[in-house]
Inverse folding.
């Protein structure tokens, strides 16, 4: 299993600013994932972050808006840049344990942009 | 396209009763896993149960069991002896297994909000 610590748990931000969300895992993992969950919606994958390479973004998400860092095998950050109210969502970090394909999630960051 | 459909946006069940949540999916792949995740108000996504597509036997975890019909691409969740703590959003998801280093990403359904009534 994996225990994931995600910070901050919530934030209220002004439009036009940026917020960086941190994700710390208690063990080394190859792949880390960032999801967005808009109000009342399901989870949508933003990007996959592998250590030592650039993140791979899903359709509809771009690096300029959601830059991701992955400096080592236990840590990643997601930045939401130049925020607008449409970015108000829950952002979740996830890791995959490959022995039994299974995703573990952080507790999420509830972002409100005003 | 790979999709997951949950046709029940909301469901309600009395405490101690049994409820079944529906899920269908669409994929042309043969190697995949299916999952049910629970998301209570705390927002923490919790794995409820997992099913390997190559296994015919339905997975069971205590009060939770699935009815996996591979040909029909159906994966329903049965919760027996429902408890108040089962109140949550339930997401059905599947993961295509990509060997050789490609990403095993999860594709989620839209969720079913389950309310267990006392």
């Amino acid at each position: 299993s994996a225990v994931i610590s995600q910070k901050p748990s919530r934030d209220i931000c002004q439009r036009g600013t940026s917020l960086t969300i941190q994700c710390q895992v208690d063990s080394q993992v190859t792949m880390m994932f960032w999801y967005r969950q808009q109000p009342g919606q399901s989870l949508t994958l933003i990007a996959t972050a592998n250590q030592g390479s650039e993140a791979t973004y899903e359709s509809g998400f771009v690096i300029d808006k959601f830059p991701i860092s992955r400096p080592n095998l236990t840590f990643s950050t997601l930045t939401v840049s130049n925020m607008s109210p449409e970015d108000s969502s829950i952002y979740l970090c996830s890791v995959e344990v490959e022995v039994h394909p299974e995703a573990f999630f952080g507790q999420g960051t509830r972002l409100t942009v005003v | 396209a790979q999709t997951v459909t949950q046709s029940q946006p909301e469901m309600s069940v009395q405490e101690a009763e049994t409820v079944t949540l529906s899920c269908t999916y669409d994929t042309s792949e043969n190697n995949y896993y299916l999952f049910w995740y629970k998301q209570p108000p705390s927002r923490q996504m919790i794995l409820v149960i997992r099913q390997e597509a190559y296994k015919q036997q339905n997975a069971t975890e205590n009060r939770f069991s699935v009815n996996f019909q591979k040909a029909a691409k159906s994966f329903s969740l049965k919760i027996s002896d429902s408890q108040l703590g089962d109140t949550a959003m339930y997401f059905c998801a599947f993961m295509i297994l990509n060997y050789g280093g490609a990403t095993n990403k999860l594709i989620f359904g839209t969720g079913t909000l389950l309310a267990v009534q006392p």
User: Anything to note?
Assistant: The interface with chain A takes residues 33, 35, 42-45, 47, 50, 91, 95, 97, 103-106, 108-111 of chain B (CB under 8 Å). The mean pLDDT of chain B is 91.
